[in-house]
Amino acid sequence: MHDFHATVFQNGTATFMARIVDINSALVKQSDVDSISYSVYLLNEGKPESRTVIPLHFNRELNVSDVLFNQLKKNPHWTEDDIGFNFCWTLLGSRIPSPFELAGRHYLVEIKLVAKRIPFLIRYRLFVI
User: Fold this and answer.
1) Which of 86, 88, 55 is nearest to 69 (CA)?
2) Percent of the chain at pLDDT above 70?
3) The CATH number of the domain where 18 resides is what?
4) The whole model's pTM is what?
5) Which long-range contacts (CB under 8 A, 24 or more apart) does 9-13 make?
6) Which domain holds residue 66?
7) What's the CA dihedral at 127, 11, 84, 20 to 10 degrees?
8) pLDDT value at position 3?
9) Number of domains in the chain
């Protein structure tokens, strides 16, 4: 599994982008997906395998059609390659507080996509400044 690494401002928002493909490298489509959810964890600096759930940001459902696209997109924020992305979601602190409260700490955001009853995890490690 590949973790994406990024930096985010304390109490800020973060945008998560990815190109999600199946085991055959075919682009995953909205109709293939049963659900998408996310969870945020504060990582223990001394024990990387230890993590603490951030209240209000655990196993929260996302609307598939809002975050997953049936065709690849490109924009200036996508810097992985020239091919594009089909997943984009911004974690905003509007309805509930931002989970990124502690500057100088690492957080893990796990996005769980279930397609045809098979779960996929997309992981982002964020350092808060």
Assistant:
1) 86
2) 97
3) 2.60.40
4) 0.89
5) 9/100, 9/128, 9/129, 10/100, 10/101, 10/102, 10/103, 10/128, 10/129, 11/93, 11/97, 11/98, 11/100, 11/101, 12/93, 12/98, 12/100, 12/128, 13/90, 13/91, 13/92, 13/93, 13/98
6) 3-128
7) 80
8) 83
9) 1
